[in-house]
Every structure is written in C-alpha cells, then in structure tokens.
C-alpha cells in the first residue's frame, strides 16, 4: 500500500503500474477476506497510449478524498506529446490523465520533477529541476511549483526569476 485517504488506496505494482482501489464502506471484515470482497473499483492509472501499460517507471502516488491522484513518471507514452523521458508530474482527475509538467515546448520537463503532493482542493505542489516549465525559470536548481486550477507558478523564482 502506498497511500491512504478515506476509503481510497493507491498501490504500485511491478512494471510501474499504478492502481487505485475504492474499498467498500461499512463492510464488516472477517479475519480472512479475499481482495475481491473488499474492492469495489480497481483502475489502472497508467495504461499507456496503447492500453497495455506505460513504458517507464510510475510511482509515489498521492490521493485525496475526491479520488484525484498525483504521481511522477518517466514514461513517454502516458499522455500524447509527452516524450521527454524525464520524470514528469501527472494528475488523474475524474477519468482524465494529464501532465502537469509539459514544459514550454509541450513534450515534457527537460529534467526531473518529483515529490508531488495534492490537497483536498486539488492543488498540487512539487519540486522540479527542469528549466523549461515556465519562461524565465532557468536555474536548473530544485524549485517548488504550484499547480492550481490549470495554472502553474513557481513559488521559489529567486532574484531575477531564475
């Protein structure tokens, strides 16, 4: 088990597959219960564009009580156009997977993005060493970013913005 929020659990399996389980509420558990009894919903969040699984590592998922999941991955086939191979931050929200670090060129971060956290309002904060996430942020050092309602901003731009 990776993370737990309310009745939702996220798991990471071999091959970089992330799964979300929604456990049935109010079930009285006997001492031995099969997973089939507990799982109300099981969904793969990283099927890849071909539907058989992403071509890279995906992990460190965080989930809020609304079922929004944020995670990092170096896969190049989770979202169309994201082909950088660097660790990018992804958000799974209401059946849609999107990359929060598309970079200014649209093909993904040019360096690692990591340690994503999501709050109950759906705001995501993460660190990144990428120099192509926002214009003017070019230091290559680890900066802290906030993704809020479709807008990405750097919380640690330094002097002169870099």
Structure characterization notes:
It is a single chain. The chain has 162 residues and is mainly beta. It has one helix and twelve strands, in the order E-E-E-H-E-E-E-E-E-E-E-E-E. The strands form three sheets. The protein has a four-stranded antiparallel sheet. Strand 7 (88-93) and strand 8 form a beta hairpin. The longest helix has 4 residues, at 35-38. The termini are far apart. Residues 12-17 and 20-39 have low confidence and may be disordered.
Instruction: Please report the number of helical segments.
Output: 1
Widest beta sheet: strand line-up: 1-2-3-4
Q: Shape from CA axes?
A: globular
Strand proportion, as a percent range, falls in: 35-45%
Taking all Cα atoms into account, the compactness measure Rg is 17 Å
Category by helix and strand content: mainly beta
> What kind of sheet is the major sheet?
4 strands, antiparallel
Strand segment tally = 12
- The end-to-end span amounts to 38 Å
Give average pLDDT, whole number.
78
Runs in which pLDDT lies below 50 for 5 or more consecutive residues are 12-17, 20-39
Helix content percent band: under 10%
Q: H/E element string?
A: EEEHEEEEEEEEE
């Amino acid at each position: 088990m990776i993370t737990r929020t309310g009745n939702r659990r996220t798991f990471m399996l071999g091959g970089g597959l992330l799964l979300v389980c929604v456990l049935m509420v109010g079930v009285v558990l006997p001492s031995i219960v099969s997973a089939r009894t507990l799982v109300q919903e099981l969904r793969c969040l990283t099927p890849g564009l071909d539907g058989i699984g992403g071509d890279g590592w995906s992990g460190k998922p965080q989930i809020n009580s609304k079922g929004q999941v944020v995670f990092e991955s170096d896969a190049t086939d989770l979202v169309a156009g994201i082909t950088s191979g660097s660790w990018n931050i992804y958000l799974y929200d209401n059946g849609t997977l999107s990359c929060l670090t598309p970079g200014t060129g649209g093909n993904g971060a040019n360096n690692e993005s990591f340690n994503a956290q999501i709050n109950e309002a759906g705001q995501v904060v993460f660190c990144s060493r990428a120099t192509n996430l926002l214009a003017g942020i070019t230091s290559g050092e680890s900066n802290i970013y906030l993704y809020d309602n479709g807008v990405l901003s750097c919380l640690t731009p330094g002097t002169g913005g870099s």
